Prior knowledge:
By secondary structure, the protein is α/β, with parallel strands linked by helices. The protein contains ten helices and ten strands.
Amino acid sequence: xxxxxxxxxxxxxxxxxxxxxxxxxxxxxxxxxxxxxxxxxxxxxxxxxxxxxxxxxxxxxxxxxxxxxxxxxxxxxxxxxxxxxxxxxxxxxxxxxxxxxxxxxxxxxxxxxxxxxxxxxxxxxxxxxxxxxxxxxxxxxxxxxxxxxxxxxxxxxxxxxxxxxxxxxxxxxxxxxxxxxxxxxxxxxxxxxxxxxxxxxxxxxxxxxxxxxxxxxxxxxxxxxxxxxxxxxxxxxxxxxxxxxxxxxxxxxxxxxxxxxxxxxxxxxxxxxxxxx
Length: 277
């Protein structure tokens, strides 16, 4: 079964399941992304801060996959916020990726203390108009940040990529997005080293009931909640397992039980603090 797509507020679509390369060694990125593409992923999520856009680009070039079958996301780092810096950053990212345009360009963090994200978003509107990014969105934005964009700019982000997993379901932010035509994308979808989601009762029970892994259950939970999800792995076997999500479906009760695990447990950085120094 092909990966389902979700439709942005600008009419373009995004594969609901992708492959992330956060903390993937730049020297290993080409091999790992090549494995992901061979497994079947067509949506790759990188960022300038990861330092591995070049490896992603080499894997894309060597894959022979037509460009229109791929969906490539990258992100603008905090130190590149501001009008001219954003223009320079997208050009550098495109050069490293070997692409004329990305499918999705995101502001990586709002960095509210610098008060540059509105100016940067206006630069993103121009980047979009110039054809260097098919769609534009944000990452790690809070409701108040999204409200500022709505009040001070002309374009609604197509997506907000945020930390999201069963212990941190971010329901108010998701509901705000849904009410304003902003899709939600989950990073850290399986949790982090600080928490072991696989042993949580509802997840383990669903895995046993469906004959799948706990990771597959969690990723399926994301999909059934209408989220875009970008798991990562250095293991081809695990990549394939994470891609194999379409032969089973969680029941409504299972989805609800997993959602009820929420403890507002943030494992990654807080949008108030990242980049503030």
